[in-house]
Amino acid sequence: MASGSETISVLDQDGAIRPSAAAEPYADRALATSVEQRIGFLRDMVRVRAFDVAAANLQRQGQLALWVSSYGQEAAQVGSARATRTQDTVFPAYREHAVGMIRGLDLLEIIRLYRGAVHGGWDPAAAGNFRQYCLVIGSQTLHATGYAMGLQLDGATATGDPETDAAVVVYFGDGATSQGDSNEALVFAASYRTPTVFFIQNNHWAISVPVERQSRVALAGRAAGFGMPGVRLDGNDVLASFAVTGALLDDARAGAGPALIEALTYRIQGHSSSDDPTKYRSEEELQRWAERDPILRLRRHLETEGVGADLFDTIDAEAADLAADVRRRTLELPDPPMADLFQHVYSEPHPLMDEQLQWLRDYEASYGSDR
């Protein structure tokens, strides 16, 4: 297995199949994907980018309170999400739009959250076990580890049946690796050998702090200190992301314990729509990473496989239709009833919530019927 300092890649920046030395344990899995699968990866990436751009525009037009972009990180997300199985559970941070889409989440649910049109989120059971977005940095790592411990207690993993054994994958960013919650999760996961894959999207900037200021070693290299394997991959290489995540999830389901992936990628847009990245990164750096665009890399590869312009045009048109549909449905979203605030504070009915809800209703009624 590659050490945390070696980078695993299968496609070079020009889209040619050129596995790195560190890719040797994973190359066969990557190259076993069919051209049809790779076209599917491209379709996912193009669709979620169109969604991302549409959502960013909606925020600029005052239709969303906030937007958190995944622009540039599509390959890391699509490859890893396509490596999961139906029985797996995914714990995202707050920019894993492609992962949610692949797991079955209606992307409008993400819009509802950032628009403030819902007081909670979505039903994970109806979204392919894709859990809620978590804006508290790093806390989802503890949620994921606890859930994985529950799988062990339920006998839902490491039974020897790969068709039913389950695992957990949790996404977080380079900035979250400095949080106490993330480090505690790694300790618990290693101690209890939970079926957890920790997936770090290292987009090089935690808001305004470069990752080298947070860690003097590769983030994947820190895994050894917790007692688990750590690998680093080229996060703009969808085949590498798919192969590595698939292999480590297989190991986790079989009882081998947790593992950590550091996917090297780059956040092209700001940390959020409230961020101004020009204050801390240069235009030259941004341009260098824009030239490594994961969609362009995969498209170049598919061109060498004989995929023609007509198919690319079809994929682009489908993505444009998706973006238009999201915009239309966003503008049709109703405001949530204020009473919904009281519905999910406790898992069971609670007299204090009933009392406060009644106060709200009495207060609203005091304005009269012409309010």
Automatic annotation (TrEMBL):
* UniProt cross-references to Pfam families, sorted A to Z: E1_dh
Domain Dehydrogenase E1 component per the UniProt entry, residue ranges: 45-308
Which key words tag this protein in UniProt?
A: Oxidoreductase, Thiamine pyrophosphate
Annotated transmembrane regions: none
Which superkingdom? Answer: Bacteria
Has UniProt tagged this entry with the keyword Membrane?
A: no
According to its UniProt record, which cofactors does this protein need?
thiamine diphosphate
Q: What is its EC number?
A: 1.2.4.4
Q: What class of enzyme is it?
A: oxidoreductase
Catalytic reaction equation(s) = N(6)-[(R)-lipoyl]-L-lysyl-[protein] + 3-methyl-2-oxobutanoate + H(+) = N(6)-[(R)-S(8)-2-methylpropanoyldihydrolipoyl]-L-lysyl-[protein] + CO2
For this chain, the family text in UniProt reads: Belongs to the BCKDHA family.
Role played: The branched-chain alpha-keto dehydrogenase complex catalyzes the overall conversion of alpha-keto acids to acyl-CoA and CO(2). It contains multiple copies of three enzymatic components: branched-chain alpha-keto acid decarboxylase (E1), lipoamide acyltransferase (E2) and lipoamide dehydrogenase (E3).
The name on file for this protein is 2-oxoisovalerate dehydrogenase subunit alpha
Q: Which organism is it from?
A: Amnibacterium soli
- Lineage from the top down? Bacteria, Bacillati, Actinomycetota, Actinomycetes, Micrococcales
